[in-house]
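Ligand-bound model needed. manganese (II) ion.
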Amino acid sequence: MKLIKILFTLSCLFLFLTALNVNSIIDARSNSTPITNSNYTTDFFWEKLLPFQIYQDEHLLLGNPSSANNYKTNANNYLIIKHQYALSYNNDKGYPNWVSWHLDLSWKGNAKRCNCFSAEETLPNGFFKASSNSYAKSGFDRGHLCPSEDRDATAEDNAATFTMSNMIPQSPNLNRITWVALEKYCQDLITQDYELYIIAGAYGIGGEGSKGYTEHLNQGKITVPARCWKIIVLLKNGPNDLQRINSNTKVIAVDMPNNNSVKLFPWEHYRTTIDDIEQKTHYDFLSNVPASIQQYIEKNIDDLPSKH
Ligand code: MN
Ligand code: MN
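Prediction:
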């Protein structure tokens, strides 16, 4: 009888350690290997197999807005999952449809801004890959979606934000003034006990940079978007983030014009509803949140009560 008890205890311990080990493979924070698309399949396997939730796909926890996948035939909605963020790449536009990432203080540190712009080498052969100078002399900035400042725990994390698959052509005043102001607002929130889920992207054709209205760059390989949007879900720090989202959860959504006049108003002026951005992009945001809750939190414009 005693032996059975010991065996039982040992097998429980084994299962527990196995679970921990799986978790450490999946938890990007605990290893330096980027989560690749093939890992994604493995994650999915574990997610379905394991009877309890040790799985957390950090950057896509709230959903995959365009049901992107990593089939090479799906070049305009091609999923890339990295340790630092996840994205859907659009080969015809030469920039991402969206980038999604979790932000809390654990991502912050003292790594220097690397300014090491580079092509996205993980794209399959045959895909268009913008290079570090594809936007040169165009009148548009290489605008980060996942900001450099959101990923400065390590030099490697920071460098990951400089791949061109995380960039869109942004008017200088949008990139340097209005867009960055909202990025700073988010970085401020995480020092006040918030953790954030952020999704950002662009839509439409044609923006106004420092050389005037432009629809394409790089011999037509890169589209200039007309509008840039961002969605932010605010939670107080804690576990089980998805389960904690309810009809009182704060969400901020903005939709900004990609032109130099954007700076005439502060970022708050461009607030809108998630429903509005869903309608314009045809994506479904927060799809892992129960529909009844989505319905509620996606229709309101936040009044920024979190404004401390
Ligand atoms: Mn959490
Ligand atoms: Mn939705």
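DSSP finds seven helices and 13 strands in the chain.
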